[in-house]
Amino acid sequence: MGQPKVIFGGKNIGLERRNDNILSSYSFTNSDHQYAVEDDPSSYCQSSLKSLTIGQQQICLLHADHMPVVIQGASKGIEECQNQFQDRHWNCSTVRDGTVFGPVLYHANRETAFTHAMLSAGVTYAVSRACKQGLLKSCTCSRAARPKNLPRDWAWGGCGDNIDYGYRFGRDFVDTPEKEVNPNIIDSPVSFINTNQTNVENEMKRKPLRRSRIRRQMNIHNNEAGRRAVYRLTRVVCKCHGVSGSCSLRTCYQQLPAFREIGAFLKEKYDSAIEVRYQRRLGQLRSRDRRFAGPTKDDLIYFEDSNFCEYNRRIGSFGTKGRQCNRTSHGPDGCGTMCCGRGYNTIRKVVQEKCNCKFIWCCSVQCQTCQKLVEINICK
Amino acid sequence: MVYLVVLEKFSRRKLLIFLIILLIIQIIYFLLGGLNGTKPTYATVHEFTLCQSKADRQWIYHSPEKNCNEEHLEFEREKTWKDFVYVIQLPRITRWFQTLTSIIVPHIEYDSRVNLSANAILTYNVRLGYKTDKMFEDLNSEWQLVAESQESRSIQCRPIFHYGTKNKDIPDGYTCEPLAFLELSTLKYPHYLINLQIVDKNGLSQDIGKLKSFEFVGICQTEKFTKLWYTLKTMTFPIVLASLIWFCRQMKRAQKTYTNLDKLIFLLGLSACILNAPIEWLTLVMPFNGFQIYSEIRQGFFLTVLLTFWLFFAGEHVVDKSANHGLFSYGKYIVLLWFASCVLLIFELCERGFQLRNPFHSIWSTRVGRNVSLTFLILAGLSSFTYIICLTVLVVRVFWNIRSKQSEIAAMRRIRRLIYQGAFYRFQFMLLTTILCAIITIVSYYLSQLYETYWVWDKEKPTKIQYSGAFITGVYGMLNIYVFAILVLFSPVISNVDDMDELTLTNDDGNVMHLTHNQTSAYQMISKTAIT
């Protein structure tokens, strides 16, 4: 945990497993906009961002200036995910093997759903915001030099639709890998149509094939839910500007919510996520519990259960061993729940801390240093 | 000589055709605005970029060359507000945008260590610079100063809380009220640059919370709508002017002296012409600062004249009143009405007048200004409220008057009956159309408001009709049609009945009846009945 030094990745927003050094140059702090996108987008998209899928590389070639923003958005999503889940069994921990979340993304549980939604929301949010700041060339608000062939009157039109732009770009970019057909998968149906002898093998192949198709569908759904969260929480604010401030003329605009709100909203959706099954007749994912219709486009969906109590590399669970817990709390961060009944160790130690600080905004802080005895509970 | 009004001379059939034509024109007006394809005004949202301030540089800007070192605000950097500049460079502006109204929304984060006071005052120093297209292409040119000002605004923020979490005391952040920022009444130059610095010396800008950035919302008229609007005005103007000239000619031809109502009808036509005169075209060639004031004053003038006209019209139709109706018999109402208009005019002049010199000024930002303008608005509100009550009372009185006569009508002599019926007819006609207009205005207003606020999620099927545009052009068309109809229908015509004395003598009680100048209508009816 800690400050996510984001190696942006995870197959499902476009980075594949094989790459270990994805975007290694793109570890960045949050509000620093000083990306230097190389002048040559093709080398940038293909070598620096190797992990993009073919479809994403094409988007990258068209909109190279979006990539730093996308990375920033994804990291914002991760940061917020960790903030929302700091006191849960699964704490949105990232791994350093280039896939960010590790095997979690290859499953189909609630956590997978949440991560997808969060990353997708992060990208939509960041692109919308960058659009508003004039950082993107293809967004109409751009403050970059206008191309010469642009019609003269196209100066401001459509500039208020930052969120639309972010939504559309997010959909195109984040959903692309799910829609692209993996060459390995294309091969297999051909092989089992031609040969009748390898029936057993085909059966084995077909099952993961269907699973992956369902998972793609689920990912697309959850990505959409994430983007919708941004839309849902966007406020419409209106301003009257008629004669003498009367409301005879009124213009409305969209205001992005704080990203924290989106995180909190999606966490609610995580808690009420819907378990789905594949309905072959409709080719759709329907709620497993037949009493409920749905899921709606705003719901998160999953079809595998998960347990993050014990260490399990296969599903990407680190277990809760070694996590801090709160002895007095009865919530999810309480030691009973957090340690899954295994008990905990208590450590007392003296630490040096900054204290009696005087914070002045903006931007200085004066502190003293003092010693303090702290008690830490750690799960067995 | 006896004078008639066109309204009464029209046969039912003719009147119906006339009204239907007007209705069709009205619908065209609505459709023009609605099917124009763009909203009448557009809000563009931008975020200020935070840059390092440099002592040796007067302006910090983004383009043409990268002059801004982007910064972000964090603790432990041992810096003060002096080291930062908020920069925004507006996209290219054309004169078609008419005016720029803008607000800024502060983004304040929650931090338990930083205090946000409920009545925090933010003070900032802000400068507006411009470049022409030519200067913009020349990389060596420097931005030129348009205005510079130090402004104070009070920050009002509400904390926002999570969805159903236990931590009720720790908000996720704040939503803040927008602050009045910049009002440009003329857009002379295509490129504008704003540099904003927060002033914290001498105890200013204290307890403003963890202020991170500002969002800039600029509101302009869309180019397409401005073009439509100018065209509409240019086409409407000669028509209304022609009807006004026609009205005057009819007056002259009928050799009728102007009565109060005639004078007001003339004034109404005149103010409509002033309103319609497409002087806007001039602003494209040479923008001048006072145009917005002029434009708002003529709107106010037109509305005041219209309200005065209604008052007179109702007043003149109180059939049996014995007072002579000089201009001053409506004195108290008129005074009230014009007082309200003057108050609004003064307010307008104060608000916009200051902005001529300093476009960052807002009358609402200082306590004194706020109180004064509130007083103005309350006064104007009160007098218009009284006006509405007076008008309603007057209308009810006319109705009651006519009603009470109606029971007697059967017993009346024929001629007198016709006189009452004529007055009643005119009055009802006028009242009905006025109420209809008012209803159309209110309904279309709410439709446009509702539409604006309503979040249209289904982006695949965008609505074809822009209600807010339809509202503006529709109401504009309606007012013009209204004025046009009055000028035409209430202009005098020479009648062939000329024995006035006979009629006045035929009254039951011998009183001379005062039916406004529109007495004529009765004669017309008499002549008609006499002929048939």
From TrEMBL, chain A:
<comment type="similarity">
    <text>Belongs to the Wnt family.</text>
</comment>
<dbReference type="GO" id="GO:0005109">
    <property type="term" value="F:frizzled binding"/>
</dbReference>
<keyword id="KW-0964">Secreted</keyword>
<dbReference type="Pfam" id="PF00110">
    <property type="entry name" value="wnt"/>
</dbReference>
<dbReference type="InterPro" id="IPR005817">
    <property type="entry name" value="Wnt"/>
</dbReference>
<dbReference type="InterPro" id="IPR018161">
    <property type="entry name" value="Wnt_CS"/>
</dbReference>
<keyword id="KW-0449">Lipoprotein</keyword>
<dbReference type="GO" id="GO:0045165">
    <property type="term" value="P:cell fate commitment"/>
</dbReference>
<keyword id="KW-1015">Disulfide bond</keyword>
<dbReference type="GO" id="GO:0005615">
    <property type="term" value="C:extracellular space"/>
</dbReference>
<comment type="function">
    <text>Ligand for members of the frizzled family of seven transmembrane receptors.</text>
</comment>
<keyword id="KW-0217">Developmental protein</keyword>
<dbReference type="GO" id="GO:0030182">
    <property type="term" value="P:neuron differentiation"/>
</dbReference>
<keyword id="KW-0879">Wnt signaling pathway</keyword>
<dbReference type="GO" id="GO:0005125">
    <property type="term" value="F:cytokine activity"/>
</dbReference>
<keyword id="KW-0272">Extracellular matrix</keyword>
<keyword id="KW-0325">Glycoprotein</keyword>
<protein>
    <recommendedName>
        <fullName>Protein Wnt</fullName>
    </recommendedName>
</protein>
<dbReference type="GO" id="GO:0060070">
    <property type="term" value="P:canonical Wnt signaling pathway"/>
</dbReference>
<dbReference type="InterPro" id="IPR043158">
    <property type="entry name" value="Wnt_C"/>
</dbReference>
TrEMBL record, chain B:
<feature type="domain" description="Wntless-like transmembrane">
    <location>
        <begin position="223"/>
        <end position="492"/>
    </location>
</feature>
<feature type="transmembrane region" description="Helical">
    <location>
        <begin position="331"/>
        <end position="354"/>
    </location>
</feature>
<keyword id="KW-0333">Golgi apparatus</keyword>
<comment type="similarity">
    <text>Belongs to the wntless family.</text>
</comment>
<dbReference type="GO" id="GO:0017147">
    <property type="term" value="F:Wnt-protein binding"/>
</dbReference>
<dbReference type="GO" id="GO:0061355">
    <property type="term" value="P:Wnt protein secretion"/>
</dbReference>
<feature type="transmembrane region" description="Helical">
    <location>
        <begin position="260"/>
        <end position="279"/>
    </location>
</feature>
<feature type="transmembrane region" description="Helical">
    <location>
        <begin position="467"/>
        <end position="490"/>
    </location>
</feature>
<dbReference type="GO" id="GO:0016055">
    <property type="term" value="P:Wnt signaling pathway"/>
</dbReference>
<dbReference type="InterPro" id="IPR009551">
    <property type="entry name" value="Wntless"/>
</dbReference>
<protein>
    <recommendedName>
        <fullName>Protein wntless</fullName>
    </recommendedName>
</protein>
<keyword id="KW-0812">Transmembrane</keyword>
<feature type="transmembrane region" description="Helical">
    <location>
        <begin position="299"/>
        <end position="319"/>
    </location>
</feature>
<feature type="transmembrane region" description="Helical">
    <location>
        <begin position="15"/>
        <end position="35"/>
    </location>
</feature>
<keyword id="KW-1133">Transmembrane helix</keyword>
<dbReference type="InterPro" id="IPR053936">
    <property type="entry name" value="WLS_GOLD"/>
</dbReference>
<dbReference type="Pfam" id="PF06664">
    <property type="entry name" value="WLS-like_TM"/>
</dbReference>
<feature type="transmembrane region" description="Helical">
    <location>
        <begin position="423"/>
        <end position="447"/>
    </location>
</feature>
<dbReference type="GO" id="GO:0006886">
    <property type="term" value="P:intracellular protein transport"/>
</dbReference>
<keyword id="KW-0217">Developmental protein</keyword>
<dbReference type="InterPro" id="IPR047843">
    <property type="entry name" value="WLS-like_TM"/>
</dbReference>
<keyword id="KW-0879">Wnt signaling pathway</keyword>
